[in-house]
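Appendix B. Chain record.
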Amino acid sequence: MSDDRGLLGGAGAGNGADDAPQVSLITQYVKDLSFENPNAPAVYQWQGQPQIEVQFNIAANSLGDDVHEVVLHVQVKAVAADKTAFQIEVAYGGLFGIRNFPENELQPFMLAEAPRLLFPFARRVIADTVRDGGFPQLMLDPIDFTSLYMQQLDAQQAQAMAPQGSA
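Structure tokens predicted for this chain:
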């Protein structure tokens, strides 16, 4: 099995493997976390299941030649009887060491594969925070980031090919 400790400046194997694409998750972290329970304690008396609204966004930044940050922003809002039961926002980040990666594959990795790797951990933070807020633990459904990335790419290509109106 390959040892990825040399990704950011360690000694290479000397067998030509130094030119092979390398990706390493250096660290992951909660960058920002907010939980609101605006109708406590009355919310614990409400009947019925709240409607859960989930939104997410992905940000990717280059921090240097071989280091990139990907941040998965997730917002969850639970609404019952037109009132907010709870609202949580988390920005969950990861630092990725990337070396010898084909330029045309970098964006798909940053916007599809990296969020796929981070999501289970962001999901756990959300579940634990909602539970700690006095509600049943919320386990978000898995998200197919690759499919969403491909849909977004197709939409951008379709928009680019559409005739532009005169200004």
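Further analysis of this model is presented in Appendix C.
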